[in-house]
Amino acid sequence: MLAGRLARISERFAWSHEDDLRLSLRAYRVLRALCRRGPLRMQALARALMLSKQTVSQTVDRLVVDGLATRAQDPDDRRHAVVTATDEGQQRLAQYLAAFTQHLQGALDGLDEREAEAAAAALQRLNDQIEAKREAGYFRTLRGVSSRREGRGGREADGGYPRSTRERGGAHA
After folding, report:
1. Which residues lie below 8 Å from residue 27, measured CB to CB, with a gap of 6+?
2. Cβ neighbour number for residue 21 with a 10 Å cutoff
C-alpha cells in the first residue's frame, strides 16, 4: 500500500514538474540508473528499468539530444552501444532529486522532529534492504516469462501456448 502511494506521489511530482525541472519521469529513471550503476549497455539498462528496449532507446535518444547522456560503441563488442550520463546529466539528476526531496518533506510536516527522524531512518533501512535484495537478484523475473504467460495469447516461455488454450483443447492442443 505504501509503495503504491509513493509511486503515485513520484509520478504526480514528475508530471507537474517536468517543465521546470526539464526531466520526464522516464528520463529521471534512466539517468538515475546510469548514475548509480555507471555506463550500461542498452539491453542492461532496459532490463534494469524493466522497460522495453525501444522505450529505453527513445528515452536515451532524447537524453543525448539534450546533452544529458552519451551513447557510444561498446569497446568490448562493437555490436552494442553503451550509455553514460554526462556531467550535465548528473547535475540535472541532482536538481531533480533535491526538488523531490523538498516535495516529500511536506509529507512529514505533521510529525514532530523525533517522529520525522524515526520515519526517515526506518525508510532508509527499508530502502537499504530492498537495494541489497535487488542487487542479489531477489526481484529479477525469469527470463522469457512475460505477460503472455498469464493467458493473454501467444506462446509461453516454454515454447507452448498458454495453459488455458492447451487445457481447453484449443487449436494448438
Report:
1. 59, 62, 63, 68
2. 19
| pLDDT tens per residue, range 39-54 | 999 999 999 898 999 9
3-state SS assignment for residue 142 = coil
Give all strands of the β-sheet with 40-41 in edge-to-edge order.
Answer: 40-41, 77-85, 69-74
* 125-143 pLDDT, tens digit each: 887 888 788 778 887 765 5
Provide the CATH number for the domain around residue 52.
Answer: 1.10.10.10
* Shared domain check, 43 and 64: yes
Task: Give the HSE-up count for residue 31: Cα atoms under 13 Å, Cβ half-sphere.
Answer: 26
Residues 135 and 163 in one domain: no
CA dihedral of residues 157, 30, 14, 11 (deg, nearest 10):
20
Cα–Cα distance for residue pair 147/117, rounded to 1 Å:
40
Q: What is the mean pLDDT of the chain?
A: 80
The SS3 of residue 84 is strand
Structural domain of residue 60, as residue ranges?
Answer: 2-109
Strand partners, 84: 70
- Statement to judge: residues 54 and 83 lie in one domain: yes
